[in-house]
Amino acid sequence: MAGALNGLRVLDLTSVLMGPFATQLLADMGADVIKIESPAGDTVRGIGPMRHAGMGSIFLHVNRNKRSLVLDLKKTEGLAAFLKLVETADVVVYNIRPQAMLRLGIDYERLKAINPRIIYAGLYGYSEKGPYAGKPAYDDLIQGAAAVPSLMSRASGGEPRYVPLTLADRTVGLMASNAILAAVIARHQTGVGQAVEVPMFETMAQYVLGEHMAGATFEPPMGETGYPRLLVQERRPYPTSDGHLCVLIYTDHHWEKFLGLIGQGQLFEQDPRFASIGARTQHINDLYRLVAQAMATQSTEVWTARLNEADIPCMPMHDVDSLLQDPHLLAVGMLQDVQHPSEGHLREIGVPVSFSGTPGLSVQKPAPRLGQHSAEVLREAGLSDAQAQALHKQCVTRI
Question: Per residue in 86-103, pLDDT tens?
Answer without folding.
Answer: 999 999 999 999 999 999
